[in-house]
Design a protein that fits this description.
The structure is a homodimer of 207-residue chains. Helix content of chain A is 71%, strand content 0%. With 207 residues, chain A is mainly α. In chain A, α5 packs parallel to α8 (159-180) and α5 packs antiparallel against α9. The interface between A and B is large, with 67 and 66 residues. Chain A binds a DNA duplex (30 and 30 nucleotides) through residues 6-12, 15, 36-38, 46-53, 57-58.
DNA sequence: TCTTACTAACTGACCCGTCAGTTATTTCAT
DNA sequence: ATGAAATAACTGACGGGTCAGTTAGTAAGA
């Protein structure tokens, strides 16, 4: 009996990430107020006190969840269309399929739901989300649309509203999945929405 | 001084509606869990006990809020396009402008936000919302699109995804307003989005 | 043996739901 | 008509449960 396996291990470096991951799950399921720190701790495999070694308050933890989910995805879409100079139809296709891929594989959908839900209680988060994600993505799309309009490749009109026309259906599909999939309503395939919609957006519904 | 004005009046019929209206405000601002029944009561001009004369629990009140906000708006969009047999482009225009009008003037935007936020905690509400609102509206649009496809007026493709293409940008605009307007980010005019987008959806972005 | 990551029991604030008491309104007797 | 008795809408203080955050003590690791 050299060593009985310990009841727990000291893992200072791994804890914060594990706690944030567990918190994302619980916050996404229950919302901020109804999420219990005990549940988050249990799901992260630690006791509640550990949370408060790494995060000052539950609110801080929530902010960290949003930040960590957003940050790595920020650059992806931007990088995908940076510096390319293709016809607008190609650029638009790339933008929408990359956005769809990111929304489908990352946790951005859950986080978006959380930000929508808690915008009233966390105005600062709504602002950060706007500045770091929404306005950036919308601005990127609008800029490309504006350039294409200058070349006569896209019809006149507010380029930011054109951006809405482009991404709105996919975002609606993401929220559909977040809300209805857990209660058993069949979801739409995001990729199918994106692929059919990009044709509609470019060519119109009328043949 | 025949009668000193009373501290309160008995208004059995008016109370439930006033309480639901106040609850909608507070729930929309704070979310279900963070909303305090005391606040709702104060805003309705009654004491907290009155809430429990008319509603069994806070959850019941929440359900009543969602039901009452949905019910009167259900028929409006359906009525607008029932029995008409116009070219698809006209039908689509009517559908989208009526939907936009309803979303802009009613409380459906706030309620949608609440349902998104609390779908995890109130699966029954998510189901009701799906059956009574979303699936009905989507089915209505999809049916019209299908008929138009049969006449060759609309390109092939999943009619329900085509419906997403039609309404997605407006719904995105509604949520934008719900989330960002309270924190000072300028909103888009829903009508402007609808009017520009319907052209895009019908004719495409490419001239 | 000493440091510290971690546990688990604890505290205190908060808030839902209750209920004993209060007051507006109605009904009934005169 | 008029006041007294009955009814029921309403108030507001409080009990009790829940949960965020704290801390005394334990065990891992060096």
């Amino acid at each position: 009996m050299s060593r009985p396996s310990p009841k727990w291990r000291r893992r200072k470096e791994a804890r914060p990430g594990e706690i944030v991951a567990a918190a994302l799950e619980v916050f996404a399921e229950r919302g901020f107020a109804a999420a219990r720190t005990d549940d988050i701790a249990r799901r992260a495999g630690v006791s509640k006190g550990v949370i408060y070694l790494y995060f000052a308050t539950k609110q801080d933890l929530f902010r960290a969840v949003v930040r960590d989910a957003v940050t790595p995805n920020l650059a992806v879409v931007e990088a995908a269309v940076a510096g390319v100079d293709l016809p607008f139809s190609s650029t638009a296709r790339v933008m929408l399929s990359v956005l769809t891929e990111v929304m489908a594989t990352s946790q951005l959908g859950s986080v978006a739901k959380m930000v929508i839900a808690e915008s009233g209680n966390f105005p600062d988060l709504a602002l950060i989300w706007h500045e770091d994600v929404v306005s950036r993505a919308l601005g990127l799309a609008a800029r490309h649309i504006e350039q294409a309009q200058a070349k006569g490749e896209v019809r006149p009109g507010d380029p930011r509203i054109h951006a809405f026309s482009l991404v709105g259906p996919v975002l609606t599909g993401v929220l559909w999945r977040e809300v209805f999939a857990p209660v058993g309503v069949p979801s739409f395939d995001l990729k199918a929405i994106a692929e059919q919609h990009i044709e509609t957006a470019l060519e119109g519904l009328i043949p």
